[in-house]
Amino acid sequence: MTRADALPTSLNPNNAGPPLWLLAELTYRCPLQCPYCSNPLDFAQTEQELTTEQWISVLRQGREMGAAQLGFSGGEPLVRQDLPELIAEARKLGYYTNLITSGLGLTEARVVAFAEAGLDHIQVSFQASDPELNNAVAGSRKAFEQKLAMAKAVKAAGYPMVLNFVIHRHNIHQMPDIIDLCERLGADYVELATCQYYGWAFENREALMPSKAQLDQAEAEVNASRAGLQARGSAMKLIFVTPDYYEERPKACMNGWGNLFLTVAPDGTALPCHSARLLPIDFPNVKDLDLREIWYDSPGFNHYRGNEWMPEPCRSCDEKDKDFGGCRCQAYLLTGNADNADPVCSKSPHHERILAARRAADHATAGLQDLVYRNVRNSRLFFRG
Amino acid sequence: MSQIPRFRRGFRFQWEPAQDCYVLLYPEGMVKLNGSAGAILNEVDGRQDVDAIVASLQQQFPEAGDLGPDVRAFLEDAEQQHWIDLS
Questions:
Q1: What is the pTM assigned to this prediction?
Q2: How far is Cα B12 from Cα B23, in angstroms, rounded to an integer?
């Protein structure tokens, strides 16, 4: 019996599972400008970050509720000077701690110090397999060299190594080179994550989304690489996340709303996923309520639990308990109403918007210079209107 | 000589009160273990070899019959999943 099951049903009417996964977005500050960043477009409006004591309180409360996986993310979490203290506290509490970083701001000494503080894993993200493209996408001249050095330092310190590449139409042709690079660096896991179109990536979708032909070729290349790795007895695992825009049924987003994942944004706003801030819903703040009240009782976290809220075609659909009607953020971005079925679903009356995006991807001509880069200047344009 | 199983670097085995089970944690992932998987992996301490693990489990579950084949098969599977090294 889980703790959530143990609560009287009056306190947990939707039988929500415990937040096993806690994502701590420590800051929106970041030295890079990736045009597919999942941070909100108006991130520059958020200047007040939680203090060290407030973060430690969040970690303690989350762990008491059953959170076991902890991600330190951002922005770039390395800009927080209290990171070693937060890592040490997290480890003491029994979390499995993941640092999700661009590698910028990392040094060999910090890699070692974090391990001594109890950090379990460092995920380094890359933008491409070569310096030119990598640095153009990241908006930083020295990024690639630094990332390579830090990937080697992470490996040398004995961490399990996960390398993450966000894939889009400008780097999808590099799949075999990317996989080669990861094998040379000794990665244990490689995430080849095609852009998900939220935040900055939604703004830049036309210039990022690969065509079906590009995607099919990449899938064939990944499968061939998998076979090669297996034949060589390599333990490196390739995780290829394809864009849901090419599916006919939506993803079971976040394993259900407020059912597994809890994100805390830099200013303490608690969210059921890192994109949900874009929804016209009031989300609670850890500065005002304790985490248990936020998770089980707040209107924001109960908004899309269960299936009473669903309109047609979800309401009468026999797959509604499997995919929960898909992603609320995607429904909102593409239809203007977050209650609607995720338009990825071919039963959605708005599915045409997905088909139009696929057609656009077949004929897109936009280059890197057409992307809106994620930086403070561009962010201010979004909230000043 | 019998093999000594060890968790691979990056894998952590622990009891989770909120889930009322043992789990195996790894980069950005978690496997919930059922009772027998949890009992077997609870014996993996980097010192006991497979024979010692079987003997210990046999002692804990005296009515379970011969556990050897199932325990060995599970540990081999765990190695294939890259959770543990058998050396």
A1: 0.93
A2: 8
Q: What is the largest CA-CA distance in chain A?
A: 57
| From A65, A120, A235, residue closest to B18, measured CB to CB | A65
**pLDDT digit string (tens) for A6-32?**
455 556 777 888 999 999 999 999 999
Q: What is the DSSP letter of A99?
A: E
Is residue A302 one of the residues assigned to a domain? yes
ipTM greater than 0.85, yes or no? Answer: yes
Q: What does A271-315 look like in DSSP terms, one character per residue?
A: ESSTTGGGSSS---BTTTS-HHHHHHH-HHHHTTSSSTT--TTTT
Q: Is A4 inside any structural domain?
A: no
Cβ-Cβ contacts under 8 Å for A350 (sequence gap 6 or more): A334, A335, A340, A341, A343
For chain B, say whether A373 makes contact (Cβ under 8 Å): no
Those residues with Cβ within 8 angstroms of residue B71's Cβ, 6 or more apart along the chain or in another chain = B40, B50, B53, B54, B57
Half-sphere exposure of A325 (CA within 13 A, CB side): 25
Residue A18 contacts B, CB cutoff 8 Å:
yes
Q: For residue A130, what are the domain limits? A: 21-246
